[in-house]
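[Primary structure, fold]
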Amino acid sequence: MPVNAEFPEKLQCLFEPGRYKVLYGGRGGAKSWGVARALLILGAQRPLRVLCAREIQKSIEDSVHQLLKDQIRDLGLEDFYQVLNTEVRGKNGSLFIFAGLKHNIGNIKSKEGVDIVWVEEARTVSKTSWETLIPTIRKEGSEIWITFNPGLEEDETYQRFVRTPPAGAVVQKINWSDNPWFPEVLKAEKDDLKARDEDAYLNVWEGFCKQTLDGAVYASEIRAATEGGRITRVPYDASKPVHTIWDLGWADNTSIWFAQAVGFEFRLIDYLQDCQKPLSHYLQKLQERGYVYGTDWLPHDAQAKQMGSGRSVEELMRAAGRTVRIVPRLSLADGINAARTVFGKCWFDDEKTADGLQCLRHYRYELDEDKKTFKRTPLHDWASHGSDAFRYFAVAMEEPRAERERKLKTRRAGGWMGA
C-alpha cells in the first residue's frame, strides 16, 4: 500500500535493512515520531509482526499505543489499520503488540516470531533485559530498533549500543537541529533552558550524557568507586562464605546482592533481580550459582505471614535449610548514611552486578516541584529496590562488627571489675 510521507534525513536508515538501528539524542529530534511512522508504512507494505517494548509498562497507557494511533490518523491509514485496546492490526496481517521487559521478560521469550522490536525510552533497560530480549528476536531478517535520550554514560544501553555498538549497527545521534519541522514552542523552551542551565541544556536538547543525575543519593560514592578502580572484575573466593541481602517484592522487583567479607573489604560479586516469581524461583537461582553460602539477610517484611501458606518468607527459607537473619531496623536516613559509610570498602563486579550498579547510579532524591528543591526522601521508582537491598547490606554488615565490639567491651569490663 503506497504512502507518501516525509522524514528527517537521518531517519532514512529506517527503510534500509539492518539488525540494529539505534537512534539517540536530545529532545525534539522526532525519533519516536519517525519510528512510529516508518513502522506503520512498512507494515502497510508487507505483513509485519512488531513488538513495541520498554523496560517498564504497567498499562497500555505507558506504551507507544497512542503515538501509533495518532500517526495512523496523520498518515491517512485509518481504513487499513484497526486500533484495538491492546494491539494494532493491519488488513494484510500486520500486528503491533506491546510489552514491558522488566515485568514480562519471561513471556518475551515466546515472541520469537517478531520481525521488528522497537524498544522506546531504552535508556534504563537493564543488562538482564537486553540479554534475554536480543537472542529471542531471532527470526531471519529480524531487526531491533532502539530510541532513547541519554542519561549517564555508564548506563547499560549507552554502553552496549553507542559506546561499543554491535558490528553492523546503524547508530544515529539525532537532535532538534536535525528536525526540519522543529516547532517554535519547543524552540522557546530550548533557548530558555540554555540561558538558565547550560549543563542541563546539553543533556536535554543536545543529547550529551550527564556526569551525575540531579539529586543522586550516591553520586560521590559511585564516582569514588569508579575513580578508585573498585568497579572491576571481582572473583569469587571459595574460602569465604557468600552472604545474600534481599529486598522483597512481587509486582516490583525482588533484589538480591551477593557479598563476601574479605579482610576489611566487602566484595559485591553478584546481583539478582526479578519480579512476580515465587520464593522457590530465587532459591533455585541461588543454588545454580554454586556459591558456598553464609547468611541470608532479609528485611522486616519477611516476617509477615503470607496469605496462601500462612507462613512467612523467613520461615519458608529456614525450612529450606537456609541460615536467615533479619536486618536491624534503622530509619531510611540512617540506612543511607550506613551505605555511604560502607561504600568506600566495597568492590563491585562490573559484569555480574551491572543491574545493581545501575540502580545505585539512578537512585535519587525526589524533586519538590513547588519549591524547586529536593525532598529528604528518595524517589520510589525502578531504582529503589536494588538500592534498598544495598542499604540493607550496609546495615547487615555493620551488625557483626557491632556485636564483636560489644563482646570485646563486655570482656574488658569483666576483667576490670575482677581486678
